[in-house]
Amino acid sequence: VGWIIRFAPLGIMGLVADAIGRSGFSALAGYAHLLVVLIGAYAIVALVVNPAIVYMYLRKNPYPLVWATIAQSGIYAFFTRSSAANIPVNLKLCERLGLDPDMYSISIPLGSAINMAGASITIAVLALAAANTLGVSVDLPTALLLCIVSTVGACGASGVAGGSLLLIPVACASFGISNDIAMQVVGVGFIISVLEDSSETALNSSSDVLFTATAEFAQRRKNGTLKAEDMVPKN
């Protein structure tokens, strides 16, 4: 298995070379377009959806906390590409936010395994891209079902680089796409994974701290003890 992993970059290079040989450099434009869609979706969740959820519970400006988690957790996760490897960083950040150790010592390791918003986006988008390429018509109920399947399936993704890509065949099966074609989609995922998987992990890992803090701060808000400065990590 170790030797297979060592030769994986050569396999990805072969996929890229084959695509360029068949379609020319226009194939790279297709990869870039897919990458923009994925990173754009991650950004919307990180900067719009997550802050909206935090505001709903705290009724305070969520962005100081959002920016802190992205800067002090997401950037590290971007380079490690592993939610599991980023657990110590998240634990330290929770400590600096003054959170209850009894809570974050459980929620952070648990979140690294099941809080996979970025992974669910990756699975859904790549499955829809495969369906569109094959001319499979996807209506709204089917798309919503795919989102549910992707969200549940992402909880089983491993916390290592590229872990979510291996769940794409499950989502493709919803459209009757064969495993042979689904694995070609996985290959495309590995081609763009340097930026895609890094951004995905940054979203997953930073939101572990974000929602752990939100849960505790919501309780403080009910007790009338939440202050704006509590939402900024202490040095």
Query: In DSSP terms, counting alpha (H) and pi (I) runs of 4 or more, how many helices?
Result: 10
Beta strand count:
0
- Major sheet summary line: none
Apparent shape: elongated
Helix/strand structural class? mainly alpha
Q: Rg, please?
A: 19 Å
Mean of pLDDT: 83
Percentage of residues in strands: under 5%
Quaternary organisation: single chain
Helix content: over 70%
Question: Ranges with pLDDT <50 over ≥5 residues?
Answer: none
CA(first)-CA(last) distance? 43 Å
Q: Give the SSE string.
A: HHHHHHHHHH
Topology overview:
Blueprint: H1 2-23, H2 26-58, H3 63-80, H4 87-96, H5 101-114, H6 117-133, H7 140-154, H8 168-172, H9 179-191, H10 193-223
Description:
The chain has 235 residues and is mainly α. The chain has 10 helices and no strands. The protein has helices spanning 2-23, 26-58, 63-80, 87-96, 101-114, 117-133, 140-154, 168-172, 179-191, 193-223. α6 packs across α7 (140-154) and α6 (117-133) crosses α10. It is elongated and about 60 Å long. The model has no long low-confidence stretch (mean pLDDT 83).
